[in-house]
Specification:
The complex is a heterotrimer.
Chain A: H1 2-30, E1 33-39, H2 40-45, H3 47-59, E2 62-68, H4 70-78, E3 84-87, H5 90-98, E4 102-118, H6 131-141, E5 145-147, H7 153-164, E6 174-176, H8 181-191, E7 194-198, H9 199-204, E8 211-215, E9 222-230, H10 240-251, H11 253-261, E10 263-264, E11 267-268, E12 271-272, E13 280-281
Parallel strand pairs in A: 1-2, 1-3, 5-6, 5-7
Antiparallel strand pairs in A: 3-9, 4-7, 4-8, 4-9, 4-12, 4-13, 10-11
Helix pairs in contact in A: 10-11
Chain B: H1 2-17, H2 20-53, H3 59-69, H4 74-85, H5 100-136, H6 141-151, H7 153-169, H8 172-178, H9 188-197, H10 201-233
Helix pairs in contact in B: 1-10, 2-5, 2-6, 2-7, 3-5, 4-5, 4-8, 5-6, 5-7, 5-8, 7-10, 9-10
Chain C: H1 3-8, E1 14-24, E2 27-37, E3 42-46, H2 53-61, E4 68-74, E5 80-83, H3 94-105, H4 109-122, H5 138-151, E6 156-160, H6 168-183, E7 187-191, H7 195-201, E8 204-209, E9 212-218, H8 219-224, H9 229-235
Parallel strand pairs in C: 3-7, 3-8, 5-6, 6-7
Antiparallel strand pairs in C: 1-2, 1-4, 8-9
Helix pairs in contact in C: 3-4, 3-5, 4-5, 5-6
């Protein structure tokens, strides 16, 4: 009987534990929210911390951000696990719309990629004319280069640049890390490697050691973010009304202003460029 | 090294300032891991005991499988739970993905094999000592389970603690199924990964120290409990 | 003391060994034992080390299954209990050990505490009720094991060398307990090394040697005129078997 009592109290405790865990989730159901699949670069820079409270104040809708690589963000959305998608891979986004997973895509903002490397710059990329030329210089001396190697938007952009430079990056010097931007920067700092980063993550990044910003400004390094409205017919269970409000707010004057106002260490990291007439749309 | 100093200072400041964000993260970590361990114990203690008491074809395979599953990489457990709870998966209707509930499910998967396998070992040993007496008293095998579990309680406390250690330390599974959502599914370990990826190593290390302290605290409490029981029960 | 117990003992089922053999890994340990136990006598099992005394008890109690032959019970269902040489007590208090046995037996919840405390008092353990059973002395542990058996109100009690490791005072307590069981109408089957003890307790003796049942004789006759030379040698204290 003492044993039964013990088991009974065990069960009760477990039930209470479960209840206390699920309760907040249900409580949040009263306060509406959407799940947004987005990229680590936007999350790590602190952009969401700055703009989501403004959106929530205006709409009463909370945004749960799941920040992953662009490839994984697409996958999460494709499986119907996110209400909204904000990523930076224009070609991939257009394909997502063309394949019927999303019904709409719109430019929201851009930031740019920068080339980072050891301050003494052995490849001399600081003097390069273009990003492709800088990449060629790195490959020329086979200086260590840390690549995300995770099929993220940044990774895809980097591969396009190698392609533009006419180089197939391979060999001991080219290290595919399969990591997020921050982890890749940590590793690059540890082995004095060149690395391509989005500016936002770089500016917010604290563990720089010998790394420095060496090359920037080539239009080929511009990094366009797009917001996608997911297909209502394909994913009937998603919170399309709320997600639509988020999408529209991002493109609105208020949303664009909030993005422009976001600063890290005095620097503007994201440049709003929503053009309502530039939205591509397909019939549902 | 200055970085370590600042990490310790950061850890201390985190604790002393009682930063509400940190408290939230710590609270959620404890809630998720303790719930997972409790549920896992409810399943795995009787399971391990049953495995110790019954002989049936395929038992050896099951025991080996259970021992192997103790080393299940958290990421794999996370992925499995993700596919299970995803909208496109069989349990998608529950809408558990990216909630603390999903994290509990993933951690239960990680902890059940540990508790079950270690419980089987301990109960088997105890059963070796007890089985004649228990059979003489007329206990059926099923009735032996609560008796043996209760008598092995001191050792099983350590087993459950091992489960708690695994649950609270793992990051791969909760990252995938929780999504590390600020204020919703962010726990100590995912917060540490996030701060590391931001290059904010002192804060990451500071959080790590807080986590270590927390686990140490739980262990110390359990150790004290176990010692008292050991002394009292001989 | 326990009239309730006695009333229940109208007829105890007959226990029969029919050509029972037991082998372990090909080694014959008990060979062709046939035996009937009826009524509520005190039967002492004697014999040198390795004669198969413990084995006989365990086969009778159902803890082991014969390799050949069978162990049968004829008559109403019997309640049995066994007291081992080294008592196996649960890692709980003395009282909780008794409560556990009562719970297993299915005694109504409200009666358990009362019965347990009664048994503790009967076996002189009342002051030790809350002590962990595992830290009790050897004699106290064996008394607790007897108290536990007592609560089961057995029709038949098996005792396997219950006093082998005890001091004289503790031995007296165990023997007194055996008498109590006997007076309550319990059939006793007990093995011992101690011939004096056998003389004090036995109504009849079963003599085992080398896995064979050599002799079953009323106690007086066994000790005065054993039928087999092995038993005679054993009684003289010679090494046999």
């Amino acid at each position: 009987m003492r044993i039964t009592a013990t088991f009974a109290s065990f069960t009760t405790a477990a039930a209470i534990g479960l209840a206390s865990i699920t309760t907040p989730a249900y409580a949040r159901d009263d306060a509406p929210y959407i799940t947004l699949a987005s990229t680590t670069s936007t999350q790590n820079s602190g952009l969401f911390d700055a703009i989501i409270p403004l959106f929530t104040a205006a709409s009463g809708i909370d945004v749960h951000v799941v920040a992953v690589g662009t490839g994984q963000a697409f996958e999460i959305a494709r499986r119907g696990d996110a209400d909204s998608l904000l990523v930076h891979d224009t070609a991939g986004e257009q394909g997502f719309v063309a394949d019927g997973y999303a019904s709409e895509r719109a430019d929201v903002m851009y930031n740019d990629f920068v080339l980072i490397g050891p301050a003494d710059d052995p490849a001399g990329i600081a003097d390069a004319e273009t990003a492709a030329a800088a990449f060629a210089a790195i490959a020329e001396i086979e200086a260590p280069f840390a690549s995300r190697g995770d099929d993220s938007g940044t990774n895809r952009a980097e591969l396009r640049l190698w392609d533009a430079a006419g180089i197939t990056p391979e060999g001991e010097w080219y290290r595919e890390l399969g990591s997020g931007m921050g982890a890749t920067l940590n590793t690059a700092a540890g082995m004095d490697a060149y690395v391509m980063s989005d500016r936002a993550t770089w500016v917010a990044f604290d563990n720089r050691q010998h790394l420095d910003l060496l090359f920037e400004g080539d239009p080929a390094l511009f990094n366009q973010y797009g917001s996608l409205v997911l297909s209502a017919s394909k994913y009937p269970h998603l919170k399309h009304d709320l997600a639509r409000q988020w999408h529209d707010w991002l493109l609105s004057d208020d949303g664009q202003q909030a993005i422009a106002d976001f600063r890290v260490k005095g620097q503007q990291l994201f440049f709003p460029n929503a053009k309502p007439d530039a939205r591509t749309s397909t019939a549902e | 090294m200055p970085q370590h100093d600042s990490a310790l200072a950061t850890a201390l400041a985190l604790i002393l300032e009682r930063d509400p964000t940190l408290l939230g993260i710590v609270g959620l970590s404890l809630q998720v891991s303790l719930s997972a361990v409790m549920i896992a114990a409810l399943v795995a203690l009787p399971l391990g005991a049953a495995l110790a008491l019954w002989r049936f074809p395929g038992r050896g395979v099951l025991v080996v499988a259970l021992n192997a599953l103790m080393g299940l990489p958290p990421v794999v457990a996370g992925l499995a739970v993700y596919l299970l709870l995803s909208r496109a998966g069989p349990l998608g209707e529950l809408g558990l993905l990216f909630t603390p509930g999903a994290m509990v499910v993933a951690q239960v998967m990680l902890v059940v094999p540990i508790i079950a396998a270690l419980t089987r070992q301990q109960v088997e040993e105890l059963h070796h000592e007890y089985h004649e007496q228990l059979r003489s008293l007329g206990l059926s095998r099923a009735r032996m389970i609560p008796t043996l579990l209760w008598d092995a309680r001191v050792g099983l406390l350590t087993v459950v603690l091992a489960g708690f250690g695994r649950a609270s330390a793992e990051v791969g599974a909760v990252m995938i199924v929780g999504g590390n959502i600020d204020g919703v599914t962010r726990v100590m370990t995912t917060a540490i990964v996030l701060e590391t990826s931001k290059g904010n190593l002192p804060l990451a290390l500071g959080l790590g120290i807080v986590l270590l302290g927390l686990v140490a605290l739980v262990n110390a409490a359990a150790h004290l409990l176990g010692e008292t029981a050991r002394r009292r029960l001989g | 003391m326990n009239t309730m117990l006695q009333a229940a003992r109208v007829g105890i089922a007959t226990l029969s060994f029919e050509a029972v053999s037991f082998e372990h890994r090909g080694q014959p340990l008990l060979a062709e034992v046939s035996l009937r136990l009826e009524g509520c006598r005190r039967t002492l099992v004697l014999g040198p080390n390795g004669a198969g005394k413990s084995l006989l008890m365990r086969l009778a109690h159902g803890l082991l299954t014969p390799s050949r032959g069978q162990v049968r019970w004829d008559g109403p269902p019997t309640r049995q209990a066994m007291v081992f040489q080294r008592p196996v007590l649960l890692k709980r208090s003395a009282r909780d050990n008794l409560l556990h046995a009562l719970a297993v037996k299915g005694t109504p919840w409200r009666l358990r505490r009362l019965l347990a405390d009664g048994a503790l008092a009967h076996f002189g353990l009342a002051d030790l009720a809350r002590r962990p059973a595992r830290v009790l002395s050897g004699g106290e542990q064996q008394r607790l094991a007897l108290a536990r058996a007592w609560l089961l109100a057995p029709d038949m009690l098996f005792l396997d060398e219950p006093t082998a490791a005890l001091d004289p005072a503790a031995i007296r307590a165990v023997e007194a307990a055996v008498d109590d069981f006997h007076r309550a109408g319990t059939r006793i089957l007990m093995s011992t090394h101690d011939l004096h003890q056998a003389r004090r307790l036995a109504d009849e003796v079963i003599f085992l040697c080398g896995g064979r049942l050599l002799e079953r004789t009323p106690a007086e006759r066994f000790f005065s005129a054993p039928a087999t030379p092995e038993a005679a040698a054993f009684l003289r204290g010679e090494l046999i078997g």
